[in-house]
């Protein structure tokens, strides 16, 4: 299927109208004049009826293939749980797409998606919205000014995920086929176990933490320093807490720490780059809070003493910047900043990190 070049407004279909679609993607699609919300897809009829009425959309589908067959849909955003099969179908249907992270659940299933997307000429990006955050972009500029890093640290303990529920109204539907949900989860678990291999399938929870929470951090690190050359060390601190030491060119080490479940009242996700004389730290904000960009802290020499400056990123919603970039790509004015290859690189690295842990066979899954 060859890529089409739709005129704006671009007709967008949303596949999977759950939390992230409702909190971020739908409001942004609705407000950007270059986009037109053309169709919705979800397993829940309640969700479809409510959001269809709210956004004035009549093309509401419970099967994603039906949405992909709709000629009014030029592009889709994929916000389901199991993305790989939907990405494959979107490419076959000739639709441009944003796929929420992770691109897929294993590198093996991601590899053909990257190839198919490249061959299609379609615009396909992974929803690593933090890479579009103005504070992160500013931080990259500052990192570029401090010379060869002595050491990099990336830390993500996240924070309370229930707080933002007071900020937004969400519709959830109980009218979903639970057998289908369970079957999808079981299928994904089996694919993950196969991807990790019998010797490491016992780390499936930790791997999922790396994919669901930590893939942002792998992407942030890669966005600044490229793909890690080595995994020198990995330690499972708990079922959802991992530490790893990665190696970058020129013998630059990076300490990565990701843990899910902290109940902090702040959002605890940052990258610090230690230079010879300076230090740059990027503090990410809670991803569910709109118009909150990352902040950058620069420590450097000032005469005979030290200076510490906090540089706020321009107030902006990273998801909105991501959509604006996507529009520019579809219009042929930009090349994807977060192409599918990066999603594959991160899956490969996540697998390498898990395989650097001591052997832990999974309970007969693999
Ligand atoms: N970029 C970010 O910061 C960010 C934040 C949260 C979630 N996410 C990603 O977004 C995705 C969705 O997360 P969420 O928190 O919105 O989950 P969710 O469970 O709230 O929503 C998923 C929705 O998809 C629907 N769905 C599932 N399978 C479907 C299918 N086959 N066809 C149609 N609809 C289907 C479900 O009914 C549900 O409404 C996940 O992959 C997650 O990793 C990204």
From TrEMBL:
**Superkingdom:** Bacteria
Domain Gfo/Idh/MocA-like oxidoreductase C-terminal intervals? 209-356
Keywords, in A-Z order: Oxidoreductase
Q: Which Pfam families match?
A: GFO_IDH_MocA, GFO_IDH_MocA_C
Domain Gfo/Idh/MocA-like oxidoreductase N-terminal as annotated: residue spans:
10-128
Q: Which InterPro entries match?
A: Gfo/Idh/MocA-like_OxRdtase_C, Gfo/Idh/MocA-like_OxRdtase_N, Gfo/Idh/MocA_oxidoreduct, NAD(P)-bd_dom_sf
**Which family is it part of?**
Belongs to the Gfo/Idh/MocA family.
Name recorded for this polypeptide:
Gfo/Idh/MocA family oxidoreductase
What's the source species for this entry?
Shinella curvata
């Amino acid at each position: 299927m060859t890529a089409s070049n739709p005129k704006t407004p671009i007709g967008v279909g949303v596949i999977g109208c759950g939390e992230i679609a409702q909190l971020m993607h739908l409001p942004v699609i609705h407000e950007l004049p270059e986009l037109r919300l053309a169709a919705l897809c979800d397993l829940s009829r309640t969700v479809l009826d409510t959001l269809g009425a709210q956004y004035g959309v009549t093309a509401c589908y419970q099967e994603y293939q039906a949405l992909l067959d709709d000629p009014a849909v030029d592009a889709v955003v994929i916000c389901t749980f199991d993305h790989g099969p939907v990405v494959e179908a979107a490419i076959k249907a000739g639709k441009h797409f944003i796929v929420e992270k992770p691109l897929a659940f294993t590198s093996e299933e991601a590899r053909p998606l990257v190839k198919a997307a490249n061959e299609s000429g379609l615009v396909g990006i992974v929803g690593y919205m933090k890479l579009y955050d103005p504070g992160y972009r500013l931080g990259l500029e500052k990192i570029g000014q401090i010379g060869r890093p002595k050491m990099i640290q990336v830390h993500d303990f996240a924070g309370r995920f229930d707080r933002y529920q007071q900020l937004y109204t969400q519709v959830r539907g109980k009218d979903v086929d639970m057998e289908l949900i369970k079957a999808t989860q079981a299928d994904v678990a089996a694919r993950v176990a196969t991807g990790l291999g019998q010797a490491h399938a016992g780390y499936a929870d930790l791997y999922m933490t790396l994919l669901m929470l930590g893939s942002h951090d792998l992407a942030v690190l890669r966005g600044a320093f490229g793909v890690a050359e080595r995994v020198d060390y990995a330690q499972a601190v708990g079922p959802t807490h991992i530490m790893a030491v990665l190696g970058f060119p020129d013998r630059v080490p990076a300490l990565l720490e990701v843990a899910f479940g902290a109940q902090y009242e702040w959002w605890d996700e940052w990258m610090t780059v230690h230079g010879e004389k300076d230090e740059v730290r990027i503090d990410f904000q809670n991803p569910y809070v709109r118009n909150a960009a990352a902040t950058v802290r620069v420590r450097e020499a000032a005469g005979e003493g030290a200076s510490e400056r906090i540089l706020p990123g321009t107030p902006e919603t990273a998801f909105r910047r991501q959509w604006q970039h996507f529009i520019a790509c579809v219009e042929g004015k930009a090349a994807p900043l977060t192409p599918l290859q990066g999603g594959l690189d991160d899956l490969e690295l996540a697998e390498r990190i898990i395989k650097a842990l001591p052997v832990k066979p999974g309970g007969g899954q693999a």
